[in-house]
Amino acid sequence: MIPYSPHPHQEPVAGALAVNVVNISGAYEHQRAPALNGVNLQVPVGARIALVGSNGAGKSTLLKLIAGLLPLHQGTISLFGHSVGVCRHRVAYLAQRSEVDWRFPMTVRRLVGTGRYVHLGWFKRPSAADRQIVEQVMAQLQIEHLAERQIGQLSGGQQQRTLLARTLAQEADLLLLDEPLNAVDVATRAIVSQVLDALKTQGKTVLIATHDLGRLEQEFDGALYLCEGREVQPPPGSFTGVHVGEWAVESRPLVAELVEATSHLPLTTSHQQPTTNPS
Fold first, then answer.
1. What is the pLDDT of residues 143-157, one digit of tens each?
2. pLDDT in tens, 17-39
3. Which CATH number characterizes residue 28's domain?
4. How far apart are CA 184 and CA 262, in angstroms?
5. Residue 113 CA to chain centroid, in angstroms?
6. Does some domain include residue 1?
7. Which residues pair with 215 in a beta bridge?
8. Exposed (0-12), middle (13-18) or buried (19+): which is 271, by Cβ within 10 Å?
9. From CA 78, how far away is CA 23, in angstroms rounded?
10. In which element (H, E) is residue 163 found?
11. H-run or E-run covering 200
C-alpha cells in the first residue's frame, strides 16, 4: 500500500500531465547498480499506457518509483503537477500477487477495505459511505460472494481480483498496475478487462506493466518499452501509439495530441461520494 503522507491533499495543477518522469534512475536497497536508468515518461490525464518488457526489464521498478515506494537517485517525477507524495490519495498502486503474504489472517472484505485507508488516516474508522464503496467494487470484480473468506483460501484469479478491488476502492485518478493479467484464468481476464475499459470511460489514467504483446494496439493509447532498466526502441512492427517515452521529450506535439483528445474526460475530486495491504 502507498504510505500515508503528511501533506494535505492537493488539487491537480490545471493542464498538467498525469505523470511526468524526467531522466530518472533508482535502485532497490542494498543494490549497487541502478535498476532503472535515464528513463523518461510523459502521460496525459486519461491515457492508458503499457510498460512493456520481460522480467527484470524495470517495469516494476518504474511503477514503484512513481508510487514513491523506492527512493529516486536521479531526475524528477511529478504527478498532476505536484511532487510524489503530495497527491497520494490520487495514486493507487497494485503490486504483483507474489509480493503479498496470503497467509495473513484477513478476510477479502477487510483486505479490499484497506484501499480506503489513505482517505481515513490511522485512527478514523470507515464510514457507511466507505463500506458502500467496498461492497460496490467487490460486486464489480464479482467477488462479493467471497467477502468473508480468508485471503489464504483464494485461487490465483480470485487473489488478483481482490487486489484490484482494493485498488479501485481508493477511487484514485492514477492507477499503477503491476502485471494485473499475469497467470490468471479466462474468467478473471475478461472481468479485469471490463474493469479497465470502465476506468477509461471514467477518465482515469492507467499505467500497466505487461509482457503480453498480443493486444497492445486494441487496449492501450501508447507503450513504453524497457530492457535492463532502460527505454529501448520497440521491435519492428510493434505497437507504439502516442510517443510517451524519450521520444516524447523531443516530440511534444505527439503528446499534445493525446492531451487534447482526453481533455474532456473528468478528473474526480478527492472526496467524491458514491452514487448509489497486507504488504
1. 999 999 999 999 999
2. 999 999 999 988 878 788 999 99
3. 3.40.50.300
4. 30
5. 18
6. no
7. none
8. exposed
9. 12
10. helix 156-169
11. helix 186-201
